[in-house]
Amino acid sequence: MGVFENLIYVNDKGEVASHIWIKWIHEGTKEANTNAEKQENVLLGETTRHCAKCLNLNGCYFPLDNMPEQPLHPNCHCYKTIIDKPIAGRTAQAVCYIQKIRDYAFVKEAKKKFFNSNGYDIMDSEYIRKTIEDVALKKYVGGDFKLGMLDKHGQRITIRVELPGRTAQGKPLSFCTGWMIYPGGKIVLTTPATELSKK
Amino acid sequence: MKEYDDVKVIVEKERYAKVGIHKGMIGTILDPRRIEGDWLVVFDGEFKQDEDGTWYTTDIECEIAESDLIVVKEYKEP
Nearest Cα to B59, choosing from A52, A134, A141, A156? Predict the structure, then answer.
């Protein structure tokens, strides 16, 4: 797609994704960019009667047509502001820790069997990690994800990723991955294999 | 208790049962944070394929109180 990559995103089903992006704002509190800050927000919510879910959404980026409902609850004073569409690698990033692949996916029996039967083994962990990161980031900035569970740990999204096919049929291996949204266009992989949507 | 530890649910509670989690089930902590005493635990399910050929799992993700869990396999970084 070249120069148009950041202008138009068409998902695997041929649908054009939204180009209007928003930033979730919970005024008067800082954005939780780290796990420790997210945890602080939960404690703040307990003492100030601010909603921990809203505090954790503060600063997160969503496409206008694929965001949590606003207002989120009665007396919710969160609002949204229009932002430039995030750009992969510049204003958006995806993080998949190697442990999620090497020490989880290739340890849990069902997941290990799934990857093995599709031609991947533990030696491919870094390749899988990097591919998942790259594909998920492209899909996140394209708005090509499904909103999942929102709780005090944060907003989850499901992103379908593809790995090159390694079986005799050669078809790409497509599967659902679970992510947590952080402020500033950052997503972090929670689980490398998940439900279609956890809403 | 920490991320990647395998943990076992040691109580039967309505809030867990509602999402299919029962006493004795074993899952894995998949978030480094313990929030309000709860860990994010993922319980393994099966792989299934949707009509587009995309694989998904029937895994269950649930926030579980640390006091309702015991570690059955401690994670050690290789």
Answer: A156
Q: Which residues pair with A156 in a beta bridge?
A: A180
**Chain A touched by B6 (CB under 8 Å):** no
CB A189 within 8 A of CB A179: yes
**Residue of B6, B26, B33 best to disrupt the A interface, most CBs of A under 10 A:** B33
Q: Is A146 on the interface with B (CB under 8 A)?
A: no
Closest CA to A142 of A50, A2, A12, A42: A12
pLDDT of residue A166: 86
DSSP A102: I
Q: What is the mean pLDDT of residues A83-100?
A: 95
A44 in contact with chain B, both atoms CB, cutoff 8 A: no
Number of domains in chain B: 1
For A127, A158, A161, B31, the CA distances from A152, given in Å and listed in that order, are 32, 18, 26, 12
B72 touches chain A (CB under 8 A): no
Q: What is the pLDDT of residue A42?
A: 76
Residues in B closer than 8 angstroms to A39, CB to CB, are 33-35
State the sign of the Cα–Cα–Cα–Cα dihedral A34, A39, A45, A51. Answer: positive
The answer to whether ipTM exceeds 0.85 is yes
Q: Is B11 inside a domain boundary?
A: yes
DSSP class per residue in A106-162: TTSHHHHHHHHHTT--GGGHHHHHHHHHHHHHHHHHTT--EEEEEETTEEEEEEEEE
> B58 is in which domain, residue-wise?
6-73
**Contact status, residue A84 vs residue A49, Cβ threshold 8 Å:** no
Question: Per the domain annotation, does B78 fall within a domain?
Answer: no
